[in-house]
Amino acid sequence: MDAIPTPAEAQGLRTLFAGNPVIGQAERALRTFRNDLHVRDAAVLLASWKHAPELSARERLAVLARFVPPPAARCARCHARIRYVTDGPDPGWWTHTDPAGMRGEGARTPHEAAPDYGHGDEGGNAGPGWPLR
Ligand SMILES: [Zn+2]
Q: Residue 90 — φ and ψ, nearest 5°?
């Protein structure tokens, strides 16, 4: 499986390859399987796509970048630091990196890390679908 870009790397790659017809064609080919495809499944499908060998390693990352969420630093429920898992056999999800930093109601309730795009303290890019503040 190809490496998966971090949310920050993915953000840069999406900007760099915006409107690129080759990357767009690859993304559309993968989304024919499922529109809300998980990046982990996108990586597996991309590896078997017939045109994948024609893409450079960087172009393959640019395709996968379109399936990675925007960067976030904190969990929306407990405000502890989080990171997006990009390695290992099961990448593509958020995890708490500092459970001791959990606060409030979220600290008392077991929960999955949820990226916080609401406070604008991660550089102000709330990404599509969220209000920019
Ligand atoms: Zn949390």
A: -135, 65
Nearest CA among 51, 52, 66 for reference residue 15 = 66
* pTM recorded for the entire structure: 0.82
- Does some domain include residue 133? no
* Residue 19 structural domain: 7-65
End-to-end CA separation in angstroms for the chain: 37
Q: Cβ atoms within 10 A of the Cβ of 116, count?
A: 19
Q: How far is the CA of 38 from the centre of ligand 1 (A)?
A: 21
Tokens 């999800």 belong to which residue? 93
Candidates 72, 85, 78, 116; CA nearest to 100 is 78
Give me ligand 1 centre to Cα 122, in Å: 16
Backbone φ/ψ region at 124: left (φ over 0), alpha (ψ -120 to 50), beta: left
pLDDT in tens, 8-17: 999 999 999 9
Report how many domains make up the chain. 2
